[in-house]
Amino acid sequence: MNFSFLRTALATVAIGLAGGAADAADISGAGATFPYPIYAKWADTYKKETGLGLNYQSIGSGGGIKQIKAKTVTFGASDMPLKPEELQEAGLVQFPTVTGGDVPVVSLDGIKPGELLLDGPTLARIFLGEIKTWDDPAIQKLNPKVKLPSMAIVVVHRSDGSGTTFIWTDYLSKVSADWKSKVGASTAVEWPAGIGAKGNEGVANNVIQTRGAIGYVEYAYAKQNKMTFVNMINKDGKSVAPEAESFKAAAANADWANAPGFYQILTDQPGAQSSPIAGATFILMHKAPQDDAAAAAALKFFSWAYEKGDKAAEELDYVPLPDSVVALIKKEWATEIKGADGKPLLN
Known about the structure:
Organism: Methylocella tundrae
Strand content: 15-25%
Shape: elongated
InterPro entries: ABC_phos-bd_PstS (IPR005673), PBP_domain (IPR024370), Phosphate-bind_PstS (IPR050962)
Domain PBP: 19-306
Low-confidence stretches: 1-12, 14-23
GO molecular function: phosphate ion binding
Number of strands: 13
Protein name: Phosphate-binding protein PstS
């Protein structure tokens, strides 16, 4: 249960702004917890290189969308991409930063990471509250060689608005007609079963502390805390582990060039190596920012991250974007994000 990495990272982000705000425009952002570890790492390195800090509030995608629409931050962050018509209505630009994925995690005595296997329909029935014990025949059928305990399943889900939840519920909606009709896909849903916890941190902590629990977290949280992850059967019928290569495979065929507003959802993608619960994470900014200097500083930060942040992203189990996608993003910045003088903020 070592969450010291996360606490240290949070302090780093806050200190970064305190050190740089006097000399340059504030870079303020809020939203998704999914990319929080990499944004924290980038912020720390960027502060050392430039003296400029980043104040990023890891409050969930729902909160990030609300704050950028209310113009209380320079950028919002969400794992649920906004549809092109919503972007247009709000005067926003959206672009991805990295890809990764959700991971089912459990707390079961004697079960090692990757030893348990589930498929989408069974996972949906667990989260619907229909499968109530670990030795249920549906789980046993998928795991004939695993000794499953006769123990109640404790479902743990997010209590806050969350892009991690959007990725999770979008996947369940694609593999289960019952889930789609009864619950659906969103950053926040009416959960039919289980207990709620705030943030990836809260879900991870609850699962670790509760015997018989199952929940979902972003992979960096699962790996940092050595959680017991579950392998999944993907769209091609293959068993895949949640790891960088399987997330990369899921994102490999995404057609970003023909996606208005970079609107792409990467769940349940085809491919033998594809993780079925993959997703990108996105930044939201105003086309006509209130503070040109702050918006320009934010764009410089993300430009630096695309150019120099790939290694750090990979070390934290995120998948960097291909150079071709970064080129599309920078073209979008030049044509869509303008200062008060009508010129691009970043040359």
